[in-house]
Specification:
Blueprint: H1 2-14, H2 45-63, H3 67-80, H4 85-107, H5 144-150, H6 163-170, E1 176-180, E2 185-192, E3 196-206, E4 209-219, H7 226-236, H8 246-256, E5 266-272, E6 275-280, E7 285-292
Antiparallel strand pairs: 1-2, 2-3, 3-4, 4-7, 5-6, 6-7
Helix pairs in contact: 2-3, 2-4, 3-4
């Protein structure tokens, strides 16, 4: 009996199908290196500084109506630092203005080439050699200096106005101000909410010789308010320069805003004690510029 039971066990063992067990599971190799996760692209301080300088120059060009030059400088700023949000925002604003100017020129038979062609850049940008995001215009690499040279105007300093005085005037607005590195005294001050953005830029040959200031109010609405615009532009008009008359400036602004057309360009101009005031821009982005009276 014992012999028969042993024989049955041996027969069952020999008939077992080992093929269904599948391939052997490999044992994990101890010490196998794990590929490192990609690190974010970090741009050098020099590249960021250059981007800020170029955007400051672009702001100055736009302030003086040189939209094509402003566009090209903003492109270079973004090429130096592709993650620079202010440059992206600026370029997004100025490109439609350049296109509108070109269209208006074409309709009047005086079209001139503006800007450079839009090309698609590499989808991946590397640190130090970052390309512009696809679809944005790409400019030349050595145009900043010539464009900056073209921006020199013959305006004189606003009488008695200093950079410190401008900063004190802007303090109640709680703007964040940044100085642009360079030979000129150039500052950009701004703040933003979900409904509007306030931008003030001013520049001069030195901290004690300010030549121009621009206040711009962008309202993110289809029905911009002249009352809100008047409040902001009147604050900018309170420049403490020699011979200033803030009341006269406010009355002039209040009288011009209701009749200002909803388009780009200069809509009204006046001179008050050696400073030239201009109202410009569409209703959603009204601006006031104040400059020293031009030399003869």
């Amino acid at each position: 009996m014992y012999f028969r039971l042993l024989l049955v066990v041996l027969l069952l063992a020999s008939c077992t199908d080992h093929s269904s067990a599948g391939p052997p599971i490999p044992k994990p190799v101890v010490g196998t290196p794990i590929p490192p996760s990609p690190t974010p692209c970090l741009y050098s301080d020099a590249a960021k500084t250059e981007a800020v300088r170029l955007l400051g120059a672009a702001t100055y060009e736009r302030q003086h109506g040189n939209l094509s030059a402003a566009q090209d400088l903003a492109r270079q700023s973004l090429a130096s630092w592709p993650d620079y949000l202010d440059a992206k925002t600026f370029l997004g604003e100025v490109i439609p203005l350049v296109a509108a100017t070109a269209t208006a020129g074409a309709l009047s038979g005086q079209a001139k080439p503006v800007g450079l062609p839009i090309v698609s850049a590499s989808p991946r940008a590397t640190c130090g050699t970052a390309a512009l995001p696809a679809g944005l215009p790409v400019g030349g690499a050595a145009t900043a200096a010539p464009l900056a040279a073209q921006s020199q105007t013959q305006s004189r300093a606003i009488p008695g106005l200093t950079g410190d005085a401008v900063q004190k005037m802007l303090k109640p607005l709680n703007l964040s101000c940044t100085r642009t590195a360079g030979m000129r005294e150039m500052w950009t001050c701004q703040s933003a909410t979900s409904s509007l953005q306030r931008i003030v830029t001013y520049s001069g040959v030195s901290p004690t010789q300010i030549q121009s200031i621009k206040g711009e109010l962008v309202q993110y609405t289809s029905t911009p308010s002249d009352v809100v615009t008047l409040e902001f532009l009147s604050t900018v008009a309170m420049l403490p320069y020699k011979g200033a008359d803030p009341s006269q400036a406010r009355l002039w602004i209040a009288g011009q805003l209701p009749n200002a057309p909803n388009r780009i360009g200069v809509h009204a101009e006046t001179t008050i004690s050696g400073a030239r005031f201009q109202i410009l821009g569409p209703a959603i982005a009204r601006a006031l510029t104040i400059e020293g009276a031009s030399t003869p």
